[in-house]
Here is the input.
Amino acid sequence: MLLFQSMLHELWHAARALLHPHLKTADLQRHISHAAVAVVPIRALAERHRKSVLSHLLELPPEDRYLRFGYAAQDSQIERYAEGLDFVKDKVFGIFDRRLRLIAVAHLAYSQDSHFETCAEFGVSVLSHARSRGLGSKLFARAQVHATNDRISLMFIHALSENTAMLKIARRAGATVEREGSESDAYLRLPAPSMHTRMSEIIDDQIADTDYRLKVQAKQFWEILADVQEVRRLTQDAQSKVSP
Ligand SMILES: CC(C)(COP(=O)(O)OP(=O)(O)OC[C@H]1O[C@@H](n2cnc3c(N)ncnc32)[C@H](O)[C@@H]1OP(=O)(O)O)[C@@H](O)C(=O)NCCC(=O)NCCS
Here is the structure.
């Protein structure tokens, strides 16, 4: 399975790199080998993931809830937020671990105001054990490509000024950051969609779907194996009680 995944990763990067017409073969090879290690399948989430999103957000400790929502969100407020997520109008992205637990979630919320219909706000959270591995940056990049393809012209991030990691991600992507005391707003202007952004999103979606299916199968396999082992253990226990 690992081999299959790494082959997919390589294919994904090869396809991406091939979209750059001026890339030389050596560059292409370097691109493939370097990026194959760095692929993180990011899945577009749907209604059926609502509960998992809620569980993910409820796992955040108070200080992270404060950074994520701008206030010390209580469980009931997080529940309302998760219930109100619109998976059709907005876009929600997630990164799953091997046990299909959501370790990172990003929400690209489209403006409700018709005057700002080409604007979207980005919010993200990564569980503490999975931080500083680039997941926040990758979710941001994924949302950026999606927003571009959806003809969003401005991506907006509201963050506390103390949120070094979030502001670093936004600045690195080219956003302008305006600080107003303890709060900061970051604005990222997006280009028009191109062949590259469209292909990139199609490929990302395919990779994420395949990765997810493999993880579902692997999880089912391990569950069946655990059941078989449990039956074997019970049988052995029963036999040892019968035979002196
Ligand atoms: C902000 C957040 C999403 C970043 O996630 P992440 O997966 O750690 O992000 P990345 O790994 O892509 O890191 C981005 C950069 O910030 C740096 N960084 C990470 N945590 C940091 C911290 N606590 N202080 C300073 N820099 C930090 C990383 O080193 C990285 O910089 P580098 O690439 O130069 O090394 C995560 O910290 C989080 O979930 N915080 C709580 C919720 C939140 O603040 N959401 C954002 C507001 S919407």
In short: Residues 64, 67-68, 123-126, 131-137, 159, 163-166, 168-169 surround coenzyme A (CB under 6 Å). The helical segments are 2-18, 25-38, 50-59, 62-69, 75-84, 135-149, 164-172, 195-242. The first strand starts at residue 43 and ends at 44. Residues 28-37 have pLDDT under 50 and may be disordered.
